[in-house]
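Thread amino acids onto this structure.
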């Protein structure tokens, strides 16, 4: 049947009457596009390839699928295809449209702009793909029709209509993207709803239908061509509809899955937040994306390792934006500048101080100096010079300390110079530089910058430090300059500050000084004056005569630059020439403070009478607060003062227009850019619950967290230094602190008397600083009424309410920092009010406070101790009890009442109390014994006895805990109280080893479960106790039943990881792996993830090894792999899946024996990004994950390399191993130590031996040998075992290369035999001291009953160990190191795991191929039997097939004694001498043999 075209009637007449010009149509389309998006399309790309290149670059920056090559390739293909279709479809229009910007180029540019917008708003990948696939289908139809159109004007107009509608649609798409409504348009497109963008899309369809009608009309006589065209269009339409349907289903699934995951992840992360009370630093790693390409790739690694310096370049940008061109350059003509720049010898000046009064523009000069230094550095042909700058600001935590200054300088240096960046990277990876050093600026400076700019180095560093007088610790500057001088570092420094700057620099530091004065700045002053005369809105319209009069007067009167700026602004406000001339004829302000005083008076006059005091409070709070308040806090402060919850800051515009600003110029945009550039939309537990807010673009513009500060730093000193006591507009320091103390005393209340609820940050400020403000009040400056007001507020806070104690616990306040000797002395002065006329005005409460303070100021802290003990008695759980107990102990110590606590402890439990020395503070372990009945007037009930018993149990006081809990049971009356007390007693009995009694007590609890007041969480705890009793009593079936009940009793609450672990331990300890897997199957995916991630750092290795063993034993490989994939899917939502991906990779390798899948999983880990903070949920550190991934991937790639017989494949694998350290994760974070990367270097050496060149094999292998020998000769002891092993492997490889079958292998075995020996008696002393502290801390933490998982009850075994407490170290192995440092486990599949801390007559085998190849004798034999084909492994795969091993220890091994190597039948030799011979003789001879012949 033939094709029948459907051409509307009258269509021919419509075509003939179309007289429009195609060029005009296109101009109108471009104009309409600008009307939609707000900007013109500009020709930016020379050709299609340039568009594709830019588009691909934008795709690679999409944070949602960065480094996912498949997704980028798909979108790139669609993008390129669309551009190709545009080229084809617009061929007829090239001559007709504007030649300068034809349709294909314009539309291609518009689409490229869209990609940029998508990246900036983080558009979803799936939404972008739907758009491009829709456009692809549309453009295909155009090309089908365009090729059949005759070249007539009417037809060209039809074609142009299509492309104009396409451009309009692109405009609306761009607009929707920027408004965050792009995804909504896709939904509208799929569901058929209306919107501007959908209407534009429908208009395209209408225009395309018209084009189709025109085409059909043009070829009406050619039936065959009509049918062919129809078929092509039909196929296109079907494909398009299928795509839309598929995307509708996909997006529905994504929406459902996302909602489910968000809900589950919220529960999961809440649970982990309760279990893991680890603090997280503020997270952000803000960098300007435009500069990233110019920075060395590894610079980000150093940046992420060091602390984040928030706003480090903000001050510089502000200065540059406000600097007038060609000013501040006079300083470079000063003789001191030339002398300073020429000072390259050690005895010459390396320090230049630029000093001047406030307002002279020193910071602008500093920025100009930095620009000059940076230009010099960039112009240095040797690329050996770097320039850095830092701007100290006293009210900004990140800009007030030397630590952040040095951190910022290091960051700038590594980003400027790739050579120095690599040098610092290498230096950081040395084992002498440990992670804690990043918090010590001296260590950072000495160990990172010192070697980079040493006197032997050719490198040079130029530093500009501005605002030295705002450095929090001036002595730090002295120390910095002394380090530079003593070490003779090639570092020169420019300092800017007040005239007192030189007094802080020791005379031994030769310093040049440039004083900033008006005469030197005269040209700059003139430039400033004329700039403002040309730009200020009123002054710029004045006549030349008046401008000249103003310029002359301002130049004559201004003592400095800032004065001139303010005076000109004041004159501009007069607006009339006559008024300005009149003002100039009058006396002008004498200095900057007088300028400010005029502004303050004018601000006060222009503010309503009812708001004047409010403005003064705001200004003085801004000046005297110990930290800057943010906008939300300021708003809340003012609302509270007015008792008006609806007050808005817009009601008092004057202070904000004259004195105060919110944030910094450009800071809001910076904050938004930082949010948009975050790799993950969630990267912490805290932010997860707030994630829904980020669905709206408006949230980014919320400025409530921006700091409120003075417009100029000198304004703060105006209020602080020039304050008066005469009741003027400026308060004295004492009055300001008095007012702030009164406010803070109100903020610490839990309940408030007025309508305004205090903002959390303001409450935190009040709690932390209320006593600081009290200490700064000068009693003599104030009237009787004011003194009484302060004392009443203090008495109410300390004596009349428990709120301050409660808030102190919430803020974890350190009382020792608050109630210092200075504070207590000040309180004793306030007590003298009793002897003045003020005493008659004091309330009874205030009188009591004064009396106690007069007797002993420490007594006020007793009141806090009483409040804390009362709160402890009401604690609902161990966490709350511990918080109150810690605060109570601190208060008792400050109150000097330790003896009272010791006396009560002796009275309560004399037999448990250890020795107490009156001269030493009572330990917490002893203090807890005195908590019961410490104050006679504070009575205890059942809740109180339970709280105390819980605390006693946490400190291992089992008998006292039982005795105390019994009192709680006796006082319990309600079902809820009885269950709580019985459950606690059951736990205590279980700890005492009385499982039968514990089980009976827990069973009694179940009798009250019918009462609805017993919560599900408490029932869960009872079931857990019964399950634990079952384990101890070896009633495993019953234990499993109760663990299952504990999980099911409260489905809405996530079961804790330790409970899940205990449930599985029942089966693993019995070897019942089928039940182990069956139990895992009954858990939800979220519970499985909880178990897999619980205590990941400590337990993950054994846990996941056991899981892989279970997968092999039960043949449940698919289930285990799916379990990992499900968990990873959850963690991907918080960008935290890397640790579990490593476990998945290990499962692929050991369970599935699938190297390709292993490689793929590890590739995803190495392609991920990190800001350096621990991963959410697992709390694993990225550097640990990096080391693991690199070592595993190295082994995987080498295994594939060994199996391949294809040169091309081998070459590709060699390149992959070489490039591991340039993968994204490796560029983001450094490993903990270079030691952990040596295995990769060994594998590279093997590859070079195979692939060549031989010279590269030698340099690579000798590099490893040298690194190991250097490490064995340093002062660090922890890495000796690793370096001995790696050195042994390196010698084995060298022996294989030279055909040495005896000497080198024996030396290798000797070295590897020493892994348990202390090679140098001088090493590890510091480590040994740290070990004790670590054990003490872990003991206290592990006894937390809420994290109960002791092997005593769970039945878990540590395996067979040669270093356990019940074994004695042999005396024939020399000086053995402590097991804590050297204990090594077999990496096979033995059960229990065999562990070594010495040889003890046993044998082990060290693999010389893979990184995880230390095997016990049994595992080695099983591996060999499998290699020989005698018996396959009945466990997971370990080590590798046909690997080679060193048998350890070597025959005749006698260890290392007093630093000497002891071998049977040989003379002792100093171990260091042994290493010297190895380097200078053995290796040298081996290489000669290698090259000979």
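Threaded sequence (1493 positions):
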């Amino acid at each position: 049947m033939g094709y029948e075209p459907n051409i509307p009637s009258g269509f021919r007449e419509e075509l003939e009457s179309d007289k429009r010009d195609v060029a005009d149509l296109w101009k109108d389309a471009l104009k309409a596009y600008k009307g939609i998006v707000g900007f013109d399309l500009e020709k930016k790309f020379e050709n299609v390839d340039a568009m594709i290149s830019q588009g691909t670059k934008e795709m690679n920056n999409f944070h949602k699928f960065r480094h996912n090559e498949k997704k980028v390739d798909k979108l790139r293909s669609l993008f390129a295809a669309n551009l190709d279709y545009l080229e084809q479809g617009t061929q007829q229009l090239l001559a007709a449209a504007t030649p300068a910007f034809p349709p294909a180029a314009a539309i291609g540019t518009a689409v490229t702009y869209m990609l940029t917008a998508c990246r900036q708003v983080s558009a979803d990948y799936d939404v972008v793909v739907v758009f491009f696939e829709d456009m692809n289908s549309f453009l295909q139809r155009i090309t089908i029709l365009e090729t059949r159109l005759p070249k007539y004007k009417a037809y060209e107009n039809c074609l142009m209509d299509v492309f104009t509608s396409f451009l309009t649609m692109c405009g609306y798409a761009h607009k929707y993207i920027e408004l965050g409504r792009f995804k909504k348009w896709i939904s509208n497109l799929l569901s058929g709803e209306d919107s501007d963008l959908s209407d534009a899309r429908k208009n395209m369809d209408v225009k395309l239908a018209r084009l189709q009608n025109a085409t059909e009309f043009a070829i009406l006589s050619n039936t065959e061509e009509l049918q062919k065209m129809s078929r092509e269009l039909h196929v296109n339409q079907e494909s398009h509809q299928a795509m839309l349907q598929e995307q509708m289903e996909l997006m529905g699934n994504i929406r459902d899955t996302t909602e489910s995951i968000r809900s589950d992840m919220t529960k999961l992360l809440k649970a982990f937040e309760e279990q893991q009370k680890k603090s997280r630093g503020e997270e952000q790693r803000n960098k300007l994306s435009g500069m990233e390409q110019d920075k060395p790739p590894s610079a980000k690694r150093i940046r992420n390792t060091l602390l984040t310096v928030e706003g480090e370049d903000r001050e510089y940008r502000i200065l540059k934006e406000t600097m007038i061109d060609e000013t501040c350059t006079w300083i470079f003509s000063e003789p001191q500048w030339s002398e300073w720049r020429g000072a390259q010898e050690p005895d010459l000046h390396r320090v230049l101080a630029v000093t001047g009064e406030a307002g002279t523009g020193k910071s602008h000069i500093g920025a100009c100096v930095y620009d000059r230094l940076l230009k010099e550095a960039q112009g240095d042909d040797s690329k050996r010079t770097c320039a850095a700058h830092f701007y100290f600001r006293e009210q900004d935590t990140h800009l007030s300390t030397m630590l952040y200054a040095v951190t910022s300088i290091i960051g700038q240096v590594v980003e400027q110079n790739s050579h120095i960046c690599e040098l610092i990277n290498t230096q950081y990876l040395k084992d002498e530089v440990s992670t804690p050093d990043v918090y010590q600026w001296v260590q950072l400076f000495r160990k990172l910058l010192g070697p980079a700019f040493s006197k032997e180095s050719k490198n040079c560093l130029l530093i500009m430090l501005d605002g030295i007088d705002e450095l929090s610790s001036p002595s730090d500057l002295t120390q910095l300059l002394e380090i530079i001088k003593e070490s003779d570092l090639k570092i020169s420094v420019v300092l800017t500050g007040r005239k007192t700057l030189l007094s802080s620099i020791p005379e031994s530091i030769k310093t040049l000084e440039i004083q900033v004065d008006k005469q030197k700045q005269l040209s700059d002053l003139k430039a400033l004056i004329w700039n403002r005369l040309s730009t200020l809105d009123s002054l710029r319209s004045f006549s030349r005569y008046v401008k000249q009069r103003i310029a002359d007067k301002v130049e004559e009167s201004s003592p400095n630059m800032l004065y001139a700026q303010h005076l000109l602004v004041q004159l501009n406000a007069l607006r009339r020439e006559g008024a300005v001339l009149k003002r100039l004829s009058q006396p002008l302000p004498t200095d900057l403070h007088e300028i400010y005083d005029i502004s303050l008076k004018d601000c006060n006059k222009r503010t309503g009478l009812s708001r004047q005091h409010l403005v003064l409070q705001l200004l003085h709070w801004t000046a005297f607060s110990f930290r800057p308040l943010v906008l939300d806090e300021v708003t809340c402060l003012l609302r509270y003062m007015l008792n008006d919850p609806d007050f808005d800051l817009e009601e008092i515009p004057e202070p904000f227009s004259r004195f105060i600003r919110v944030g910094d110029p450009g800071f809001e945009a910076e904050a938004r850019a930082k949010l948009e550039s975050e790799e993950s939309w969630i990267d912490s537990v805290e932010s997860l619950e707030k994630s829904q807010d980020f669905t709206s673009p408006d949230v980014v513009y919320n400025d409530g967290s921006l700091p409120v500060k003075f417009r100029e730093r000198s304004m703060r000193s105006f209020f602080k230094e020039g304050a008066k006591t005469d009741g003027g507009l400026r308060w004295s320091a004492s009055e300001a602190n008095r007012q702030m103390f009164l406010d803070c005393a109100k903020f610490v209340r839990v309940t408030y008397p007025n309508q305004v609820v205090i903002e959390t940050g303001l409450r935190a400020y009040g709690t932390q600083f209320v006593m600081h403000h009290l200490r700064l009040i000068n009693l003599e400056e104030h009237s009787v009424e004011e003194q009484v007001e302060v004392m009443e507020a203090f008495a109410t806070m300390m004596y009349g309410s428990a709120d301050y104690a409660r808030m102190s616990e919430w803020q974890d306040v350190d009382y020792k920092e608050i109630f210092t000797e200075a504070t207590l002395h000040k309180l004793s002065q306030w007590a003298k009010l009793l002897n003045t006329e003020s005493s008659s005005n004091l309330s009874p409460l205030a009188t009591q406070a004064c009396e106690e303070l007069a007797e002993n100021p420490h007594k006020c802290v007793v009141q806090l101790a009483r409040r804390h003990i009362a709160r402890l008695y009401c604690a609902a759980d161990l966490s709350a009890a511990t918080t109150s107990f810690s605060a109570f102990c601190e208060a008792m110590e400050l109150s000097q009442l330790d003896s009272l606590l010791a006396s009560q402890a002796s009275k309560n439990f004399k037999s448990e109390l250890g020795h107490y020395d009156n001269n030493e503070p009572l330990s917490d372990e002893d203090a807890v014994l005195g908590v019961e009945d410490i104050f006679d007037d504070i009575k205890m009930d059942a809740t109180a006895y339970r709280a105390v018993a819980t605390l006693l149990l946490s400190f291992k006081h089992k008998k006292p805990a039982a005795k105390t809990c019994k009192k709680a049971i006796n006082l319990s009356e309600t079902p809820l109280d009885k269950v709580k007390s019985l459950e606690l007693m059951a736990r205590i009995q279980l700890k005492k080893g009385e499982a039968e009694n514990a089980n009976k007590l827990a069973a009694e609890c179940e009798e009250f479960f019918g009462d609805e007041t017993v919560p599900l969480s408490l029932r869960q705890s009872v079931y857990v106790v019964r399950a634990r009793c079952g384990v101890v009593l070896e009633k495993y079936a019953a234990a499993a039943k109760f663990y299952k009940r504990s999980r099911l009793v409260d489905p809405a609450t996530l079961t804790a990881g330790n409970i899940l672990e205990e449930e599985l331990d029942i089966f693993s300890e019995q070897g019942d792996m089928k039940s182990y897997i069956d139990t895992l199957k009954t858990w939800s995916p979220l519970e499985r993830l909880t178990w897999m991630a619980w205590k990941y750092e400590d337990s993950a290795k054994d846990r996941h090894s056991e899981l892989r063993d279970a997968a092999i034993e039960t043949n449940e490989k698919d289930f285990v792999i799916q379990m990992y994939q499900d968990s990873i899917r959850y963690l991907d939502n918080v960008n935290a899946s890397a640790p579990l991906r490593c476990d998945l990779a290990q499962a692929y390798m050991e369970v599935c024996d699938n190297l390709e899948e292993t490689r793929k999983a590890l590739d995803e880990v190495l392609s991920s990004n990190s800001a350096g903070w621990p991963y959410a949920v697992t709390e694993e550190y990225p550097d640990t994950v990096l080391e693991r991934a690199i070592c595993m991937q190295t082994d995987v790639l080498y295994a594939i390399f060994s199996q391949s017989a294809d040169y091309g494949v081998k070459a590709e694998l060699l390149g992959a191993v070489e490039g591991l350290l340039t993968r994204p994760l490796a560029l983001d974070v450094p490993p903990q130590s270079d030691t952990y990367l040596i295995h990769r270097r060994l594998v590279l050496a093997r590859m070079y031996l195979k692939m060549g060149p031989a010279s590269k094999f030698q340099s690579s292998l000798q590099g490893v040998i040298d690194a190991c020998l250097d490490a064995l000769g340093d002062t660090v002891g922890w890495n000796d075992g690793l370096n001995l092993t790696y050195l042994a492997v390196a010698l084995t490889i060298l022996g294989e290369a030279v055909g040495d079958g005896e000497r080198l292998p024996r030396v290798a075995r000797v070295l590897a035999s020493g892994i348990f020996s202390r090679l140098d008696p001088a090493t590890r002393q510091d480590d040994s001291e740290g070990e004790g502290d670590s054990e003490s801390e872990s003991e206290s933490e592990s006894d937390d009953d809420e994290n109960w998982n002791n092997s005593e009850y769970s039945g878990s075994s540590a395996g067979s160990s040669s270093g356990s407490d019940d074994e004695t170290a042999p005396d024939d192995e020399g000086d053995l190191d402590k097991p804590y440092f050297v204990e090594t486990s077999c990496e096979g599949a033995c059960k229990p795991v065999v562990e070594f801390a010495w040889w003890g007559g046993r044998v082990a085998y060290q693999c010389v191929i893979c990184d995880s190849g230390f095997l016990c004798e049994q595992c080695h034999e099983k591996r060999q039997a499998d290699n020989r084909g005698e018996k396959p492994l009945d466990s997971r795969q370990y080590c590798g097939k046909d690997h080679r091993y060193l048998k350890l220890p070597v025959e005749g091994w006698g260890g290392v004694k007093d630093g000497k190597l002891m071998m049977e039948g040989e003379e002792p030799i100093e171990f260091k001498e042994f290493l010297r011979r190895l380097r200078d003789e053995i290796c040298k001879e081996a290489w000669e043999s290698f090259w000979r012949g």
